[in-house]
């Protein structure tokens, strides 16, 4: 008797699992139901691509069952053609349908890849609502630390750790970098993910269309504290965002270079904190890996290299490096000599407003580069210019 009951219960287990499916209706699929226009376009791209692929997958699955049932061994009425080997109509269906779907997917992906380019400034903040020329995007400088996130608001002159506040219906422009290893900056409700790499700067544009509290995290493994590398994201109205900025400025604290070097040390499960003031050009120093006083910035080094080097005068212009990445820039000497070129006089890096990607985007069709062909010159045909007459 117990064995019969166990067998009957085993039969009804699949039905019990099916009964749990309605409970999944309460799940919040933020990727397919985001709060930002860019993320919504990306979610629609996923749905459209999936639907196009199901146009061929679903009929194949249905026909598999139909053919297996119709041509089963017990069905004596099914047509039996042992010498059948070709059907032009069937070949057209088999090859034409997938080919058309691939063409549609390719065109859709090509257009979406350009329109949803993370480096491309936003041309709209909602369907049918273009970005006004009078609206200035909110700029946020993002730095991936071990293991926390630093957000710098250069226009507002404030900064925060593991807390990001943004106004709704305003374009947001992220400038993203990292202090040590590669991470991935991802806010599913706002836009797609993009990598944060040391010594480099990546960009991301997005917009929130409704208020609420969301979450962001790193989507790329970066060490022991990676699991807790999450931050709160607040989508606020204009008045609430202004109040948040005012409260941050009233809270005190300054993020200068010395404070950043302390903040940069590896730490886990860091609570949210704010800074009322930020040292100017701190983010550019982080990107150029020259936060330490006196250390040469990468843009200086590249400028010197482009000019042919510093010559003999630069041979002795080196200093001991007491600041390494492994132990949060600890101390010690001996590993690879631990020396670096001392800073030379140079111009500061260009401000973000002077960057070419700050110009407004348009919605003209994507027609390719369209660059004119350069005019032919004598050098193009291998000819050498005539020597100048000597006096």
From TrEMBL:
GO terms for cellular component: plasma membrane. It comes from the Bacteria. Its main location: membrane. The chain crosses the membrane at residues 45-71, 92-112. It is found in: Cell membrane. CDD domains: CuRO_UO_II. Residues 351-391 are annotated as: Disordered. Keywords: Cell membrane, Electron transport, Lipoprotein, Membrane, Oxidoreductase, Palmitate, Respiratory chain, Signal, Transmembrane, Transmembrane helix, Transport. One of its GO terms (molecular function) is cytochrome bo3 ubiquinol oxidase activity. PANTHER family: CYTOCHROME BO(3) UBIQUINOL OXIDASE SUBUNIT 2, CYTOCHROME C OXIDASE, SUBUNIT II. This is Ubiquinol oxidase polypeptide II. It comes from Sphingopyxis flava.
